[in-house]
Amino acid sequence: FLGLCNNFAYVVMLSAAHDILKNQESANSTASTSATLAVDFQVGNSSNSSRYDCNPVSTAAVLLADIVPTLIIKLLAPFVIHKMAYSIRVLFCAIMAASSFLLVSFSSAVWMSILVIFASISSGLGELSFLALTVFFSDVLGGWGSGTGGAGVAGALLYSGLTQAGLLPRVTLLIMLVVPFSDGQTSGLLTFTEKLHIIKGLLKFVFPLALVYFAEYFINQGLMELLYFPKFFLSHAEQYRRYQTLYQVGVLVSRSSLCCVKIRKLWVLSLLQVVNAVLLLFAVGYQFLPSAWVVFIIILYEGLLGGAAYVNTFYFISKESEDREREFSMAAASVGDSVGIALAGLAAFPVHTYFCSL
């Protein structure tokens, strides 16, 4: 439940990225307030001559706003966060997540939608805190991994389902407010030098994790929006939501697999994910995939790889770290996925610009 609640807001913001930007586009191009409310997120991009039906701003903008605060927190917090009680951190995370739903749902300009940073702050601080907390309990890492995977499915599926049922995305985000509020032993203090030494030893885990997340989020926020099939029975926005949901299903399955299978060769997962990214990049450029059904399968597989990389990385860190170092190691290594995601967001901008100019 902690894993689900912690990642829920972050996932919903990424699932809503296409709608968030579409809403701002319609708001900026429509003089009448009533007309803007009527089309709320659902207007087509009729002024766009690109064959990719592009938003003027890449969904990577939402991704960067959703990940940069997390990255900053994960880089700095492990060195000082031990001075703040876990209970205070959890309360702060809940307030930040709720704030993100409120502020984004009532936003009317792109810059206001960047207030998804509150979801990022909540998710980033919560993730490093709960990962560190797992070291004080027996066999809970699998539960945390499964919960964070469940957040992906619940967030993406609920958002897609409620909007598909006819609710405005603004109303859907407000309904999500219910989630953030559902809600002994200590290790010896480490010196700054000791922490730097531990980080050096963690690089063999951090690099593969960063690479796998770079590849998958380059797909999710750089390519997914461009993998549009006009003759498919789903609209562009609906296709994007299905992609996000299937990705999260794959993540849920693989993050819940720790009790059944453990994968030590993390680089294999990273390289397979890079192959996925290259394949879909060429698919966007040359449009050789026959149907969205093929993309659905690839996206599901992508989620399986990403989830497996995450849960196995932290499992082996917890097993191979010394008792005194384990709490810090679990928190510090969580920066790996955020580094990869942030770099993917930066890489997605020129790709979006290039393809949308065709």
TrEMBL record:
Topology of this chain in the membrane: Multi-pass membrane protein
Keywords of the record: Lysosome, Membrane, Transmembrane, Transmembrane helix, Transport
Transmembrane segments: 57-76, 88-121, 141-159, 266-286, 292-316, 328-349
Biological-process GO terms, alphabetical: lysosome organization; regulation of intracellular pH
GO cellular component terms, A-Z: endomembrane system; lysosomal membrane
Primary residence: membrane
Keyword match NADP: no
Family note: Belongs to the battenin family.
Name by which UniProt lists this protein: Battenin
Organism, as annotated: Mola mola (Ocean sunfish)
